[in-house]
Amino acid sequence: MELTVGLGEYIISDKENDIIRTYALASCVGVTAYSPVKKMAGMIHVVLPYPFDNNDRKERPGYFAETGIPLLINTMCIKYGCRKEDLVIQMYGGADSRFHNDVYNVGRRNIDAVKHKLYELGLKIHKDDLHGIESRTLIMEVKTGLVRVYRQPIF
Predict the structure, then answer these.
(1) Do residues 118 and 29 lie in contact, with contact meaning Cβ atoms separated by under 8 Å?
(2) Range list of β-strands (E), 7-133
(3) Which of 22, 84, 90, 118 is buried most, with the most CB atoms less than 10 Å from its CB?
(4) What is the pLDDT of residues 54-64, one digit of tens each?
(5) Could you give the C-alpha distances from 141 to 32, 58, 120, in angstroms and in order?
């Protein structure tokens, strides 16, 4: 079955025939977590680094790096019994703005926030594909943990 991760969402699957995908990571960051022991895969599509307020923190936890990364990892480990030390973590996206005067630097801030949360959780990033001026679509196989990346220029 094909499972699609939308903006600010995450999906976890242990069904070996499932494919998890997310589309059009530009300044957003996609993080994948795979347990080769449990044959379980998870993916989150992070939109922004931090919640604006406590309401956002509660209502849209997957939307933000600060709340979404722990949500994905803790769900895989606590609810599904994966061990953090077994997880293969990859991150993608965080594209740079095409505009040189972009004061928000959302892509860079997302990358920094995701890395910070992963570090806080004691996790190592095994592979990354970050920055640039391309949008990335990710397709992850639950059976193997393989992640394929398809790039499209940001116009």
Answers:
(1) no
(2) 10-13, 19-25, 29-35, 40-46, 88-93, 125-130
(3) 22
(4) 888 899 999 99
(5) 11, 30, 27
Domain count for the chain = 1
Round to whole Å and give the CA distance between 58 and 54. Answer: 6
Residue 62, judged by CB atoms within 10 A of its CB (0-12, 13-18, 19+), counts as: buried
| Threshold 0.85, pTM exceeds | yes
Backbone angles phi, psi at 31, to 5 degrees: -120, 135
Distance of CA 49 to the CA centre of its chain: 12
The answer to whether the CB of 10 falls within 8 A of the CB of 137 is: no
Tokens standing for residue 146 = 């393989």
Query: 65-74 vs 106-120: helix axis angle to the nearest 10?
Result: 40
Q: What is the residue range of 51's domain?
A: 2-153
Indicate the pairing of strand 147-153 with strand 125-130: unpaired
Listed range (48-52, 136-140, 145-149) with the worst mean pLDDT: 48-52
Three-state secondary-structure class, residue 87: coil
